[in-house]
Amino acid sequence: MTFPLGPLLPLIALIAPLAIGLLAAIPATRARSLALLPLAPLPALALAFFGTQDETTLAPDLLLGVTLTLDGNARYFLGFVALLWMGAGLYATAYMRDKPKIAPFVGFWCMTLCGNLGVFLAADIITFYVSFAVVSLCAYLLVVHDGTQRALHAGIVYIVLAVLGETCLLLGFLIGAAAADSLLIVDVRIALTDAPGGEAAIALLIVGFGLKAGMFPFHVWLPLAHPAAPVPASAVLSGAIVKAGIFGLMQFLPMESGLSLWGALLVITGLVSAYYGVAVGLTQRNPKSVLAYSTISQMGLVLALIGAAAGATPADNLAAATLLSLHHGFAKGALFLSVGIVAASGRRAAVPALAAAALLALSVAGFPGTGGALAKAAMKAHIADPIVYWLVTLSAIGTTLLLARFVMTLAAQVSAQERARPSPIMTASFVALAVAALVSPWFFFTDLAGLPLAYSLSASSILNGLWPVLVGGAIAAAFLRISPSVPSIPEGDLVTPVTKWLRRLDGAARRGRSRLEDLPRPDPGVLAAPLWRAASVAERAFARWSFAGLLMAAGALGVLIALSLQ
Amino acid sequence: MNTALPVLLLATSLVPALVTFFLREESERKRNAVNLAGAFAKLGLVVVMLDGVRRGEDYEFRFAFVPGLEMLLQVDALALLFVTLSAFLWLLTTIYAIAYFRGGSDLSRFFGFFSLCVAATTGIALSGTLITFFIFYELLTLSTWPLVVHKGDAKSLAAGRRYLAYTLAGSAVLLLAIVWLESMTGPVEFAAPSDLRRLDDMTLRFVFALFVLGIGVKAAIFPLHGWLPTAMAAPAPVSALLHAVAVVKAGAFGIVRVIYDVFGIALVAELGVGLPLAFVASFTILYGSVRALQQRDIKKRLAYSTVSQVSYIILGAALAGPFATIGGLVHLVHQGLMKITMFFCAGIFAERAGITSIDGLAGMGRRMPWTAIAFSVAALGMIGVPPIAGFVTKWYLGIGALQAGQTWVIAVLAGSALLNAAYFLPLIYRLWYQPGEDIVRADAQALERPLALIAPPVVTAAAALLAGLMAGLALSPLGWATLIVERTYWP
């Protein structure tokens, strides 16, 4: 056994959530564990504020040698994600109190949290991979927590894509680590540039991380999963967990060496996601689904910003992407929490909640004076290409429309009980996150945007932020007046035709097979009926050992002949 | 040098076997005491030797049992990897079997052969020469047959017949390979391999193929795997041991020995026989997974999963190269821990709740939480979900393949991971998310009894988790596999 070297706080930050999760598993402490939920991210938060930069913690016994460090943008990610988990955890202590199945909720909440924090702290690729897998797979249990048919269906789509994403990441990591002959992320990133198969690795990483960040066309799980989870879990899913994908891209893409083709691809898919999210989101009727599509759209902007980083001034763009993520994390987390608050409020109590939600919506759209305006200003300052610049600016109109749609669907959720009031704890955590969203970018703007604060107060910045919101607002108002009928697209858009298509294919495969009654039925919706049939027939032949032996002998002979011909 | 310990190690299973044969059927307590004492003693010896071998001590015992034919038992790091696994899992399986068979019949016969089977496995691990290896290999074949047919019904007997047909044919081929090779070189000793380079390449290739063909039957390489799924007719403790430690592993271990200690990596590379073997192993990995996906019976699905997973070991050995070798060797242990957990659990589901088909698992998570948790952990580990042991294997195999320039292997690994997910995740989903019968609390408690039945899978599942989580420890399976590779093959 070797005692960990270096500062212990990073290790404690990861172990604390697990310890609290363990309390949920012990019958004696199970009932109390929910109350401890907001404390789980506390050490991580302390680390983000007081941790020393660039010091390495090494725990050689764990995994293949866990290496943790806190550098650059990771500190901001760690800080806002920890704070968001804390706010949502506090909210959960009230929201989940009288609900069934508390122990699994607390346990998997804490495990997901641990994985999410590990993503930001990991300095070695194995710790990163493990953390990413933990946050991906444990989040499944938060998605399906309610156990409804809808949640289970969302869960299936979620897990299939998550497993695919993990596999892509594993392959990408393997190629990178083999080329680097090192497990450190820094080395792997550099090695990816000229690794054999490095291009493939980068593509695999973009798919794996993009999937988590809701990148089109891998976004389909997001609008199914985020609304299906309990409210506080939706908040961390949309506010914190998607950021793991964003952070992964920032960590692993070799920006320094300019990955122009992949960068351009990322910019394009990012912008497609940004507009597609708005277009489909507008057809949604459930406020949580609208928010989920808004997340796809906003993350699309972050992806575009990261893509634009390849080449010019990568460090600046990544810092701006960090600021954008930070603001979105707080704002989207708070907006999800508002759904639970409004649903628990009677008409009178709902008014201030709706007003606060509208204010947050303006912030996400980049209304001048809000935290969101700063984040958007930082973003636009680092986009050189005029077309991309205008597309980003115009997307704010869509964001305004989409969030106006959200406020409308939210208003429809007000409780029928006139005097109903949300619990003060829920209100307090919502307010705290809302304030963080509106205010915190002011503190970090100079550092992360690399610009003086005065830049965001200049007339052109203000005008730039203002007009898209006004245009969006005007369209929304006109829309309300005319109120045309909106087509309804099911949550998860592309999933529906794809599943239908798969089912039809499966049905055809089954009909085709019905003549061979004795064959075993395949398990999943299968595309490979002919393969199945062949395997079954072959297997019956192999069941006779004489045949198997002959075949093996013949195979060996074939190999021998082939070798002797060399 | 210590000569007593290898013999003692063998005796800890051989003596209980002999004593048990002489016990009457009714003397249950004596029988259990003898078997448990043997298992504990063996584990104790293993701990002593782990420390010794790490410090570089030698343990070997040799005697000529026929003039000119020398029997050699030696404990090197590779042998100890296998012995440690079998000693640990034998103890747990004994505890499990005692609970499983409580009130059954023919138990003296069963436990006698059970111990004999473990003695043979230990012998295979300790063998220092080819001929010693062959003797124990045959002992294993024969001592396993009564276990497979233990139930005595038509199905078991048919499974037993098929098992014998396959394995005896394999043994004949193996014997041919040994005799052929030794007729040219004289007795082959693993620690001091004779130089085979003076022999003709074509002959060597042919001998290598015969070795793989002979040993490949037990390792269930495609297309020699046909006996394994049928052998599922055996009782659960037998299946558990068969798939995790004894027969299948003996095959995989044998192939590792042949590649590394009979031919040597350099020669295998020169002959160009490693790559074809890697192809066969990769095909087996995918084929086993596809077949597993088709099964509706839990044990059958697990059996095909074994066909697939054991070939990881062979793939690692065939690729040759430090990382691939570590990956293969470490999977010897990892697969054992995970697969035995799943077979223990399958036995509990069948025995306590009457569930043998996958559909029956619906809602069992709430009714049998401990069993279901152990099963889920092991299944996730098989898929390669970190931090459970399986991902360490995949990582090392993947890096090893890339180092060896065989990029296609990582596609096989990815395909296998996805197929594993496709055939294990639905089981976990059924356990926890499909509605089953209503739970009655008293009923739930009655299902997970007795402790001796439930504890072994929980322990092995925890071990599988720790093997991944604490892989950096010097005494973790990974640490030990690294030691083997650093000490012996790439010093």
What features would you describe in this structure?
The complex is a heterodimer of chains A (566) and B (491). Chain A is 74% helix and 1% strand. Chain A has 566 residues and is mainly alpha-helical. In chain A, strand 1 (56-59) and strand 2 form a beta hairpin. In chain A, 56% of the residues are buried. Chain B has a domain at 284-491. In chain B, a hairpin with a 2-residue loop joins strand 1 (59-66) and strand 2 (69-75). At the A-B interface, helix 6, helix 7, helix 22 and helix 23 of A face helix 6, helix 7, helix 12, helix 17 and helix 18 of B.
Give the arrangement of secondary structure elements.
The complex is a heterodimer of chains A (566) and B (491).
Chain A: H1 9-25, H2 30-33, H3 42-50, E1 56-59, E2 66-69, H4 73-95, H5 102-121, H6 125-143, H7 149-180, H8 185-192, H9 198-212, H10 221-228, H11 231-252, H12 260-281, H13 287-309, H14 314-343, H15 347-365, H16 371-381, H17 386-411, H18 424-449, H19 453-457, H20 459-482, H21 495-513, H22 529-542, H23 545-565
Antiparallel strand pairs in A: 1-2
Helix pairs in contact in A: 1-3, 1-5, 3-4, 4-5, 4-11, 4-14, 4-18, 5-6, 5-11, 6-7, 6-11, 7-8, 7-9, 7-10, 9-11, 10-11, 10-13, 11-13, 11-14, 12-13, 12-17, 13-14, 13-17, 14-15, 14-16, 14-18, 15-17, 15-18, 16-18, 17-20
Chain B: H1 4-22, H2 28-54, E1 59-66, E2 69-75, H3 77-100, H4 107-126, H5 130-148, H6 154-185, H7 201-216, H8 227-230, H9 236-244, H10 247-263, H11 265-271, H12 274-294, H13 298-319, H14 322-353, H15 364-367, H16 369-383, H17 390-403, H18 408-433, H19 441-447, H20 451-469, H21 477-489
Antiparallel strand pairs in B: 1-2
Helix pairs in contact in B: 1-2, 1-4, 2-3, 3-4, 3-9, 3-14, 3-20, 4-5, 5-6, 5-10, 6-7, 7-10, 9-14, 10-11, 10-13, 12-13, 12-18, 13-14, 13-17, 14-16, 14-17, 14-20, 14-21, 16-18, 16-20, 17-18
